[in-house]
Design brief:
Elements: E1 7-16, E2 19-31, H1 39-47, H2 50-70, E3 77-82, H3 90-107, E4 113-119, E5 126-132, H4 140-148, E6 153-157, H5 164-169, E7 188-189, E8 197-199, H6 202-209, H7 213-216, E9 217-227, E10 231-240
Antiparallel strand pairs: 1-2, 1-8, 2-10, 3-5, 3-6, 4-5, 4-7, 9-10
Length: 249
C-alpha cells in the first residue's frame, strides 16, 4: 500500500445521469486502504447490530440499482417476466433468466438491462422486473412464447416516470435477505451499463459546486442522517433542470 493513494473524505458527489447526490460528513473517512483493512468497515462490523446491518444492506442494494438505472437514460422499456411453475426457486429462475438473455443478445447484440427478481407476497411465485434499452417493437406473445418460454411476459414503455431508478428499486424489499435469496444474486445487470461517477476529493467537489451548480440543478431531497462512525451526515439530492443541456462535470 502506498500512502499517496490514501486520502481523507469530508464531502462526496455521486453523479448518476441527471441526478447528483451530495454528502457532507461530520467525521472524515479515508479512501485507499485495502478493502480487507478499511477502518470504516472494521468499525461497522464491530459496532452495528445484525438487524441494522441487514437494513443497511437493503439500502445499499437499492442505492446501487437506482444509480445504475439513472446513469443509463436509454433504459426505456419496462419488462415483467413470470413463471407458470409456482415452486421455482431463485437459483433455477436465474439460470432460466440467463438463457433468456442469451436469446435476446442474438437479436440485440447491444442489449443493456437491469433486472430485479421478486417473490409475490400471496402466491410466492417468482417473477422479474427489468429495464432494457430495446427500441424495436416486440409483441408480448412473441416475447413470452418464443423468447421467454416460461410463463407470461409483458413489455411497455416507461412513460411518465420521473425518477425511474427510484421506481424500480422499490421492488427490492427487506425480504431480499431472507433464506430464498441467500448466496443468490439479488439483482442482475449487463456489464455494458454506464456506472455512476463518484467525486470525493475535496478540491474537485468544491470545483463542481462552485461552477454554477445551483443554477443548473434543483434540489429535490434533503436529509440529515446520524451515523455511528461518521457522525452527522448531510445528504442532498439534485436533479438537472430539464430545459438545460449542460454538464459541469
Amino acid at each position: 500500500m502506498t500512502t499517496d493513494r490514501v486520502y481523507s473524505v469530508s464531502e462526496k458527489l455521486v453523479i448518476s445521469g441527471d441526478f447528483v447526490e451530495h454528502y457532507q460528513y461530520e467525521k472524515n473517512y479515508f479512501v485507499g486502504f485495502p478493502r480487507l483493512f478499511s477502518p470504516t468497515r472494521f468499525l461497522r462490523a464491530k459496532t452495528t447490530p445484525q438487524e441494522r446491518i441487514r437494513a443497511d444492506n437493503v439500502r445499499r442494494t437499492r442505492q446501487k440499482v437506482r444509480r445504475l438505472i439513472n446513469s443509463n437514460k436509454d433504459l426505456l422499456k419496462f419488462m415483467t417476466l413470470t413463471f407458470d411453475d409456482p415452486v421455482i426457486d431463485l437459483a433455477s429462475g436465474n439460470k432460466l433468466f440467463d438463457v433468456f438473455i442469451k436469446k435476446m443478445r442474438r437479436l440485440y447484440p447491444d442489449l443493456k438491462y437491469i433486472a430485479v427478481p421478486e417473490f409475490q407476497k400471496k402466491s410466492k411465485k417468482l417473477h422479474y422486473h427489468l429495464l432494457t434499452n430495446i427500441k424495436e417493437y416486440i409483441s408480448n406473445d412473441y416475447l413470452a412464447d418464443e423468447l421467454w418460454q416460461n410463463g407470461y411476459a409483458w413489455l411497455r414503455e416507461t412513460y411518465n416516470i420521473d425518477n425511474l431508478g427510484a421506481y424500480v428499486s422499490k421492488y427490492l424489499s427487506k425480504e431480499i435477505f431472507d433464506e430464498r435469496y441467500f448466496k443468490k444474486r439479488k439483482f442482475l445487470y449487463s456489464f455494458n451499463l454506464l456506472k455512476p461517477i463518484i467525486i470525493d476529493k475535496f478540491k474537485e467537489v468544491k470545483r463542481v459546486l462552485n461552477s454554477g451548480f445551483d443554477y443548473f440543478y434543483n434540489k429535490i431531497f434533503d436529509k440529515t442522517i446520524d451515523s455511528d462512525f461518521l457522525g452527522v451526515i448531510q445528504y442532498k439530492q439534485y436533479k438537472c433542470i430539464d430545459i438545460v443541456n449542460y454538464n459541469i462535470f
